[in-house]
Design a protein that fits this description.
- This protein is an alpha+beta fold and 365 residues long.
- It has two domains: 181 residues, no CATH class; 163 residues, Reverse transcriptase/Diguanylate cyclase domain (Alpha-Beta Plaits, 2-Layer Sandwich).
- Helices cover 64% and strands 7% of the residues.
- It is built from twelve helices and five strands.
- Helix 11 links the parallel strand 4 and strand 5.
- The protein is rod-shaped, with a radius of gyration of 38 Å.
């Protein structure tokens, strides 16, 4: 999972906490209102009605706009906390026989909402409970100070410790996510490289190819190369020497081309070079330079005596028409096949093949 996905997950959690908080406020406010519907109208408190309306409206807005990322939790918590404080003060003075137990019960109701919905958000928790706490302390006038402070202190300490532990856990998770993502990127890069030569493998070529064909205008060429009589080299010199020869040839190919060209180990002893933004003349010159660079390595190959006493390559080259990469590879492969049949250690362009070896122009285009 990417870091962006982790951030989306955190936002989803934040949004769910906000909606739960609003739902609980709607439920508690309706609980305060409904029993009073048959009673005198003047006993229905305005702040509770505002809590119900504000919470319900905000909750509906959140449901209708699921992608909204405005940080609503803290301001909403403060507003609703102030409304509950207003309700506590109003109800306390409404009926003369209320005693301190009403204040404790009211405070516990506010803590109930905060404890369920805001346990992961200490700032919102504090903003929600602060107005009711101050109101209760002022109304109590010190009569039940110890009990009220205990009611306040226990959940506050508990949630503070929980918040600290959760923050540490979130930071650890985030660090772990970043480390895993970096390792994933590293392994992804490695999986696109051939371990012996350090060149791109077919997966790496495909990754680069998609970007080049979409974002780079101009003509591109495919050069398909094959080491001459490499099976005989492996059979007589051994696979260890064969691997060394492959590694040296790959370096020569990479050194001969431009930095923007893509060099790929396409098969066992087969290489592919994707030449970008070139014309036919330059593409052929680059191909010839590769051939010469390989000859200049002077890697002994006495089983290639019909061609040379050293390792050589044969190659076929073809243009990419209409972003048809696979067709260009097939055309280059035809040219490579003919080049080998004509004596090896040579470069042959697909356009120069006899008509029997090429597609008609209508088929290409």
């Amino acid at each position: 999972m990417k870091l962006e996905s982790y951030d989306e997950l955190k936002h989803s959690k934040y949004r769910l906490s906000l909606m739960l908080f609003l739902f609980l406020n709607v439920a508690v406010s309706l609980f305060c209102l409904l029993p009073l519907m048959d009673a005198a109208k003047n006993e229905i408190t305005l702040p509770v009605a505002i809590v119900a309306f504000f919470s319900a409206t905000t909750l509906i807005s959140c449901l209708m706009k699921p992608k909204l990322k405005f940080p609503l939790l803290n301001p909403v918590a403060l507003i609703l906390g102030a409304l509950w404080a207003w309700h506590i003060n109003y109800r306390y003075h409404l009926v003369f026989y209320f005693d301190g137990s009403f204040l404790i019960i009211s405070l516990l109701s506010v803590f109930f909402i905060s404890a369920i919905a805001l346990s992961d958000y200490l700032m919102a928790f504090c903003l929600h409970i602060t107005p009711p706490v101050l109101t209760v302390l002022l109304l109590d006038d010190g009569e039940h100070f110890g009990l009220i402070m205990l009611t306040i202190a226990l959940p506050l300490i508990g949630f503070s410790l929980q918040h600290l532990m959760r923050r540490r856990a979130d930071n650890f998770t985030l660090r772990l996510m970043r480390q895993l993502y970096e390792e994933k990127e590293t392994f992804s890069d490695l999986s696109m490289l051939d371990p012996l030569t350090g060149l791109y493998n077919r997966r790496g070529l495909k990754n680069r190819l998609d970007n080049i064909l979409v974002n780079h205008a101009g003509s591109h060429y495919v050069l398909l190369l094959d080491i001459d009589h490499f099976k005989a080299y492996n059979d007589n010199y051994g696979h260890a020497m064969g691997d060394q020869a492959l590694a040296r040839v790959s370096v020569a190919i990479r050194d001969a081309v431009r930095s923007r060209d893509v060099v790929t180990r396409y098969g066992g002893e087969e290489f592919l070079v994707l030449m970008t933004n070139v014309n036919a003349s330059i593409a052929m010159k680059l191909a010839e330079r590769i051939r010469q660079y390989v000859v200049d390595l002077e890697i002994p190959h006495r089983f290639n005596e019909r061609v040379s006493t050293h390792v050589t390559i044969s190659a076929g080259i073809a243009p990419i028409y209409d972003n048809e990469f696979d067709q260009a590879v097939a055309n280059a492969d035809r040219a490579l096949y003919v080049a080998k049949n004509q004596g090896r250690n040579t470069i042959l362009a697909w356009e120069d093949l006899p008509k029997t070896h090429t597609l008609s122009s209508g088929e290409v285009h």
